[in-house]
Amino acid sequence: MAEVAPAASPAKVAKKKVSKPKKVGPSVSELIVQTVAASKERSGVSAAALKKALAAGGYDVDKNKARVKTAIKSLVAKGTLVQTKGTGASGSFKMNKKATRRAWPAPQAAAASRRSGSPWK
């Protein structure tokens, strides 16, 4: 009838979280954008050629296949890349010309044109 509660083991100590060091260098998306931008191919760069270029640049493609695929898909979804052939993360990709043209100068030019033509002068 007399039950004794088990004693808490003193061996359990709060574990400290060991933080991994941050990766140095550009992200996969940045590497892909640089590779596609450097290409002079009219029809774009194929996914296989992208992976070969990443591997030549020192990136371990075999270990990070999923990262490369998700990076390609997200760049297409954002509009940074345009998919010329294929679906998903396969096919050919090239830079979106509309996205590169829409840089900073357009808003400044629009603001300057509004100021110059005031109808109340």
Automatic annotation (TrEMBL):
Residues covered by the H15 domain: 24-97
GO biological process: one example: nucleosome assembly
Superkingdom: Eukaryota
Low complexity compositional bias, start-end: 1-12, 102-121
Family membership noted in the UniProt record: Belongs to the histone H1/H5 family.
GO molecular function ontology, one term from the record: double-stranded DNA binding
InterPro entries reported in the protein's UniProt record: H1/H5, Histone_H1/H5_H15, WH-like_DNA-bd_sf, WH_DNA-bd_sf
Function: Histones H1 are necessary for the condensation of nucleosome chains into higher-order structures.
Record's GO cellular component terms: nucleosome; nucleus
Location in the cell: Chromosome; Nucleus
Entry protein name: Histone H1
PROSITE patterns: H15
Region annotation Disordered: where it falls in the sequence: 1-25, 91-121
Biased composition (Basic residues): 13-23
Keywords from the UniProt entry: Acetylation, Chromosome, DNA-binding, Nucleus
